[in-house]
TrEMBL record:
Spans annotated as Disordered: 31-59
Segments passing through the bilayer: 6-26
Compositionally biased tracts (Basic and acidic residues): 45-59
UniProt name for this protein: Uncharacterized protein
The entry's keywords: Membrane, Transmembrane, Transmembrane helix
Length: 59
């Protein structure tokens, strides 16, 4: 049991270090997903009527 104590302590220290670094640095905005406008084809898959002019504009 005492043999596992240094491993557990080092795991906690490494986890805290990784969390601190990840909060400081963020990913580039180019990797963030942006909402896409649905095409007329995919709007039909979601039950939207593509002939309704205002329906596909709001998504």
């Amino acid at each position: 049991m005492i043999d596992l104590l240094p491993i557990a302590i080092s795991a906690v220290v490494v986890a805290a270090f990784v969390i601190a670094i990840s909060r400081k640095f963020s990913l580039s905005p180019r990797y963030e997903r942006k909402p896409r406008n649905r095409s007329l084809w995919s709007a039909q898959d979601h039950g939207e009527d593509p002939t309704d002019e205002g329906n596909h504009e709001r998504s």
